[in-house]
Amino acid sequence: MVGALPTALLLAWMEVVSAHYGVDANFAKAVAITESRPKGGSEFEIRIGPMGKNGRYIGPMGISKCFAKKYDIYNVWENIRIGIKALNGNERKALKRYNASFNEAYYKEVMRIKYKLQHGSTSNIKLTSRNVVDCNVAALTTTKPLGRFRQ
Predict the structure, then answer these.
(1) Residue 131 neighbours by CB under 8 Å, 6+ apart
(2) In 14-144, where do the E strands start and end?
(3) What digits encode the pLDDT tens for the residues 13-59?
(4) Which of 28, 36, 70, 143 is the most exposed place for a label (fewest CB within 10 A)?
(5) Residue 63 bridge partners (DSSP)
(6) Residue 126's closest CA among 58, 37, 25?
(7) Half-sphere exposure of 23 toward its Cβ, with a 13 Å CA cutoff?
(8) How many C-beta atoms surround the C-beta of residue 93 within 10 A?
């Protein structure tokens, strides 16, 4: 598990990026939780780094490795920026674009978590990492993410 300071920084960055792209921050956090929560993990767990079979997706936003040539998806800040940018617009339509295996259960789970986050469950969010080197968790406390957004 990663400490409280990196968790707070990650959540603050999600708020900044969400505001920039006009996405509800609780919706973005709910997507990150739903995409990256391990089976048997806590209800509000966000993982960073390789996820899924063979590490095919990279957390916290669950971005496919096929985007690695175009974006630095292993950089936590960039991973969040790319993921949240893709969530712009109508939430149901955004989720259909975001998750290739979208179904009603996925939508309901994201909305359930969003509802809980809107009603004060953000203090329960835990940040975990499978591989600190691969996912650059150290950058959470050493990189200054606030810079110019790339469009």
Answers:
(1) 49, 50
(2) 45-51, 57-59, 63-64, 126-129
(3) 999 999 999 999 999 999 999 998 888 778 888 888 888 878 899 98
(4) 70
(5) 58
(6) 37
(7) 31
(8) 11
